[in-house]
Amino acid sequence: MTAIGWAQIALILGLVVATAVPLGRYTAAVAAGRVAFLAPVERLFYAAGGVDPARGMGWKAYTLAMLASNAVGFLLLYAILRLQGVLPLNPEGVGGQSAWLAFNTAVSFTTNTNWQAYSGESGLSYFSQMAGLTVQNFLSASTGIALALALSRAFASGAVQDLGNYWADLVRITLYLLLPLALLLGLLLVAGGVPQSLSPYVQAATLEGGTQTIPLGPAAFQVAIKQLGTNGGGFFGVNSAHPFENPTPWTNLLQCWAILAIPLALALTFGHIVRDIRQGWALLAVMMGFVVAGVAIVYAAEAGGNPLHMAAGVELATGNMEGKDVRFGVALSSLWAVATTGASNGSVNAMLDSFTPLGGLVPMLMIQLGEVLPGGVGSGLYGMLVFVLLAVFVAGLMVGRTPEYLGKKVGAKEVKLAMLAVLILPAFILGFAAVAAVLPVATASVQDAGPHGLSEILYAYTSGAGNNGSAFGGLTADTPWFNTTIGLAMLFGRYGVIVPVMALAGAIAAKPKLAASTGTFPTHTPLFIGLLAGVILILGGLQFMPALALGPVAEHLVLAAGKTF
Amino acid sequence: MDATPAFHPGEARRAARGGALLNGPIIRRAMLDAIVKLDPRRLVRNPVIFVTEVVSILVTILAVRAAALGEPWAFQAGIALWLWLTVLFATFAEAAAEGRGRAQADSLRRARTETQAKLLLRGDDRTLWQPRAATELRVGELVLVEAGDLIPSDGEVVEGIASVNEAAVTGESAPVIRESGGDRSAVTGGTLVVSDWIVVRITAAPGSTFLDRMISLVEGAARQKTPNEIALDILLAGMTIIFLIAVATLVGLASWNGQPPSVAVLAALLVTLIPTTIGGLLSAIGIAGMDRLVRFNVLATSGRAVEAAGDVDVLLLDKTGTITLGNRQAAGFIPVPGVSEREVAEAAVLSSLADETPEGRSILAFARQRHGIAAPALPEGARVIPFTAQTRISGLDLPHGAFRKGAVDALLRSLGGEAPAEFRADVDRIARAGGTPLAVARDGRLLGAIELKDIVKTGMRARFDALRKMGIRTVMVTGDNRLTAAAIAAEAGVDDFIAEATPEDKLAYIREAQAEGRLVAMVGDGTNDAPALAQADVGLAMQTGTQAAREAGNMVDLDSDPTKLIEVVEIGKQLLITRGALTTFSIANDVAKYFAILPAIFVASYPELGALNVMGLASPESAILSAVIFNALVIVALVPLALRGVRYAPAGAAALLRRNLLIYGLGGVAAPFLGIKIIDVLLVLLGLA
């Protein structure tokens, strides 16, 4: 580890926290309908949809509207992917995706996962990228944020039904938050060298006398929203490690900022909505604490290098550089790996498969802990609030009152819904991974033997169920088995959490808001921040320990003993 | 009719209050009950322990099968044994908690002897009655109860007055007066009329009397899970499912490289990970909490009410009897100019000779103590002027003078003429200081004033400070005027007061506090308190109160001591804290268990995982067995804590959380490392592993 490496990390994380303050306040204003500089455009949408933006919705209406809009989005994307061969803007003449792959891809982008079992430059037309994926990048992101706003409102006042209007939330978030930010970031990325073009791929003659196809496309703006919306699906196959997708350390800084900016800012938005900003800072502190701790472990592991190489005397002084780009180095690759997994983004700028065992363990654990550190846009906040309720419930009893959070009592119904949401990840990650570990049709896709091979399987389902979308690598995922099971993991990982969370929002909203006193469990103190972190580790992490012991932990110890498979 | 209950359960409860947690008979009985409770149909209510039992059965079958096939079976049998003990310790904990309550219920049952009631045939004629078994009385029927009779069932006195010994329910053997009308009309079945007679209208059907309810409550038969208990059960069930997934999937995951662990080992891992500690102790904690309340002579109609007590933000306390010593007491004689203090004292004594009220008694006592004036016997031929609500004056006409005392304005009006300015000033000063001035006159001449003062009970200020630290506001309710109320409130250290309070005022205050999102507790005894008692989140009714008040509240204090409300709140808090502390402890334990079991399970596939064996446990078998044994023993070790409740001292939430997180959270992480290591060493020493 170097001082300059840490300085780079500190610069980006500092930037994220600094922008979280205005961004958090602004998003709260958007949520409250106080931002209206595009009111005529807004009205156009409402008129087209026959929507009254002022009419509040209960949790069921809100959830049904969300599910309906997502279902339409899924079908549209599925159709585009299947039919892209006959659709316009296809200069390379790419054919339609197979049914398995199109299912997987459509689920992947509607659920904000952006797992990619294809490679963008060879598998998608410009039309699919723009009208299909980019549209879903916006919609899945604003869906997540809308849901988080609905849950936040449930805590804001007592005994209400109204969680806001889903359509108004969707339109406002897209129009006032995501579009302007993506426009700005897209322009900056273009300036930084990311292509934004509809021209066909370029054929170049190399110095060696061969020819090379250089892929192009409308990349910059799609990359902007892919990062801002914690989607993470790369325009090109190797994602942000591609020299066009992420050409320089500056674009890297911008993108890494964009990954964390909105999810972290939403913690403060929550504070504004419940009219107690300290609550928002407490959540932000937990999220940031895990990111910093995660980066420290990964950076230390990667800078330490591969013990086998060290023993052979071939290790570079810079640490483990296998699978990393020299223009980013160990520090920025480590930060990216933690940010992209903590934030449910899933874009990569280095090959996780090539990280040291501990360096690979941390990103996997960041997802398994529930994608709340800081998690996807919106999904991170509502996931975090589920953990907050559980933390308050378990430890809140210890102050001698039935537990409450922000004046809302946590009772049997809330605990049941919170536990349902928490159950999804272990069920789908461990369940599918256990089957895949013994099923020949699945094991055939796995590149490595020994504990590393298990990590590859485990990571794939972790990424899918956690709606992260990053690939560990070393796994041939475009098979019917993986396309289907990972697709299911993505679906349940998204909607299997959302439905109980929205029911939770309904239950919380209906409760009276009790006044606080010195007998009330404080939820903004360092003590609570530590407690919440502990609960996330124990309720979110303990169940994965046996699996992790067989994967990265075993690999780490075996490697230290000088053994390979 | 043999009517005298030979046994006073209330006194027995008091005796038991400071007694041992568990004694021989209770433990022996609990051991038997623990085995009966193994019935899976009963155990299914407790998901964590139910899963443990299912796993125990499975491992037992495997051990037997291995033995039959001549395979090594000792390890499996060892695991099976300790899994069964885990289940047994959990059922024992519940049985022990119930056993403590049952001892009390048995003593109560002896008071519920079969009685013959005197059923009146006509309401207006109490000579016309026929015998009827108490168990056959219906609601609304009238019975005659005479001296020496047991009151056959709960009811309302409609005619007559009698002194009643209520020791059967309250443990207090001094008789109390029960009369028709007013606030002392409720009678309880099983209590004994000592003198006179009353006609009682039956208000409770057989089997649902106060005594019946009390028995089923302390026995735990009527016990339903409280809301918070249900929520905790769901959390524990959810965690059980999560760990079931984590352990079951190990079969597949471990097959990736090597052999999956044996069923016995997976069973051991599962049972040590699921929260068996809190799962095993949860119902015992609830039963013990109710039991603690009963030992304080308070009956709650439900566990829900006890939990609500822990949540209370506002306490409405009656001034009289709770904050102050029941009645006002004389604290000074203040003469008008030209009269000596002794003259005032003597006139005050004579005017109070026939005054049997506590105020009147206190005037005599104060005069004796301060001026050495011994009260003479009531002279022959003296005419007593009784106090009436209209005149508000009382006194005595003696041959040598007419002595009067009374409310200042009333007496001055009857005297006519102006009072000296000095007297006016003195009277105002007394009122401002929270006292009550009385005027004293002789033969139509104003002599001076008597200062009556409310004496605040010692130690109340400290208790209110403690409550404030817990975040609870105390509100004094009094019929006094604002000035007086403010002075007493300041002296006692309460946060707020309601002066000149009517029942409607109380109700309005409670509604307002609840609208602000606060939970309110109050004490009441009269019928006019009933609406407020019903409205309050916790309503503590006095046993001496009316039937209406007792029905409206959700707790009854058998000692009729309004101060108890504070203890009730503390018991409610202690119950919740105990639950939270043991849950935290149980979950925190898992960390160490992983370090014991994971390396043991996987060391065959990856010998390098032995590096995780940070406790240096002797062998994989001893490590797994030690974790299982620790997991079982910790339940037994915590039974006393579950029954007694964790130590609770009033403090703010932040301080309580810090302390309990440190003890039960960090302690919960650390304790099993030590415990498992010790058990492992013992196993090796004993040659068992």
TrEMBL record, chain A:
InterPro entries: KdpA
Keyword line: Cell membrane, Ion transport, Membrane, Potassium, Potassium transport, Transmembrane, Transmembrane helix, Transport
This protein's record includes keyword Membrane: yes
This protein's GO CC annotations: plasma membrane
Bilayer disposition of the protein: Multi-pass membrane protein
A GO molecular function held by the record: P-type potassium transmembrane transporter activity
Protein's cellular compartments: Cell membrane
One Pfam family this sequence matches: KdpA
Function: Part of the high-affinity ATP-driven potassium transport (or Kdp) system, which catalyzes the hydrolysis of ATP coupled with the electrogenic transport of potassium into the cytoplasm. This subunit binds the extracellular potassium ions and delivers the ions to the membrane domain of KdpB through an intramembrane tunnel.
Quaternary structure (record): The system is composed of three essential subunits: KdpA, KdpB and KdpC.
Family from the record: Belongs to the KdpA family.
Name under which the protein is recorded: Potassium-transporting ATPase potassium-binding subunit
Automatic annotation (TrEMBL), chain B:
EC number of this enzyme: 7.2.2.6
Primary subcellular site in the record, as a coarse category: membrane
Sites where the protein binds ATP: D355, E359, F387, T388, A389, Q390, T391, R392, I393, S394, K405
Alphabetical list of InterPro entries matching this protein: ATPase_P-typ_cyto_dom_N, ATPase_P-typ_P_site, ATPase_P-typ_TM_dom_sf, ATPase_P-typ_transduc_dom_A_sf, ATPase_P-type_domA, HAD-like_sf, HAD_sf, P-type_ATPase_bsu_IA
Molecular-function GO term, any one: ATP hydrolysis activity
Reactions performed catalytically: K(+)(out) + ATP + H2O = K(+)(in) + ADP + phosphate + H(+)
Keyword Mitochondrion: no
Enzyme class (EC, first level): translocase
UniProt xrefs under Pfam families: E1-E2_ATPase (PF00122), Hydrolase (PF00702)
Binding site for Mg(2+): D525, D529
Active site feature: D318
Membrane topology field: Multi-pass membrane protein
Signal peptide residues on this chain, from the entry's feature table: none
Family: Belongs to the cation transport ATPase (P-type) (TC 3.A.3) family. Type IA subfamily.
Quaternary structure (record): The system is composed of three essential subunits: KdpA, KdpB and KdpC.
Role description: Part of the high-affinity ATP-driven potassium transport (or Kdp) system, which catalyzes the hydrolysis of ATP coupled with the electrogenic transport of potassium into the cytoplasm. This subunit is responsible for energy coupling to the transport system and for the release of the potassium ions to the cytoplasm.
NCBIfam families: ATPase_P-type, kdpB
Protein name from the UniProt record: Potassium-transporting ATPase ATP-binding subunit
Lineage: Bacteria, Pseudomonadati, Pseudomonadota, Alphaproteobacteria, Acetobacterales
